[in-house]
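Journal club prep, notes for RB
We'll compare a predicted complex against what the paper describes. Inputs for the zinc ion case:
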Amino acid sequence: MKKLIIIILLCAGITYAGSGQRKIVHLPDLPGYVTLKCDFHLHTVFSDGNVWPTVRVGEAYRDGLDAIAITDHLEYTPKDDFIPVDPNAGWKIAESTAKDFNIILVHGAEITRKMPPGHFNALFIQDASLLAVDSAMDAFAAAIKQGAFLQWNHPGWKAQEPDGIPKLYPIHKQLLEKGWIHGIEFFNDNEYYPLVLTFCKQYNLAVTGNSDNHGVISESYPAPEWPNRPMTLVFAKERTSEALKEAMFAGRTLVYFRDIIAGKEEYAKPFFYKCISVSKPYYENEKNLYFEVTNNSDVPFYLINGKPDTPSSLELSANSVTRVVLSKKVTLPLTYDVKNVMTGENEVLKVELKY
Ligand code: ZN
């Protein structure tokens, strides 16, 4: 009998570990930095979400993320007839599970106001309850006092901006002048706002992309149609909470969702070149050279606008090798626009291929 119980316990242990395997997201590090895959906008039952805080950690682990923030609404707690209101509950409940799973948990909260100013996540705080005050400006001040990173969430959310276009209202300009906005969401769930790239470049802010998930991630982004949730890629000096925070304030980010990468060119360019490599020609005849372009990342790259006599477009599929046949008349490098790497409101990344 004792033996049977031990076997059952062992099986239970194996099932527990086996049912939660971590996916590997193939995205390169940048020189001098590790690429941390993050989701800084998640809800739980402690505001209007439907899951318990520890579920967010398990999801992040399985999705291959490095860091998450639970950001329950401070001002909107529709389940308070059944669940006591505690603005720090997400953090308190998930903190030890995050340690168990090697996920960096960022202490956060969502300051939830009508537009303007709209919704803001305060990240890297110590006590969310101090942010639950009447005036939005006082809430921001309380967050700043705790050293918070303030992220303007979904600035073009149609419920608040019917035309879907983000606008800088006087209060935003005031916040920017004080240095109280540190990042803006480009991706929020399946929406994105190209104008955010202009704002982030103009004011030197971090471009962020998050799920803002209220339900279950695997139901919101079912594979294979949705290979990943929206995420912020943060280029940190090391994989720690402190280094993550430093990188966020320094604006070293890109965002990734489906097959789109967006952000500042200074990060998008080295990111692209770390994803791909070009081989020396492996064969030539009188007319052509033959070589290969390898894409070692999960992001496909769609290269367009090739020059005359070169392939007009190249699709570098994710985790694949693409064969290129090139006329000997052509001199390298080949130049392309990468259609799915957005570096500005009306701008995509320009790259050169050479071996
Ligand atoms: Zn939210």
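Talking point for the session: The first strand starts at residue 34 and ends at 42.
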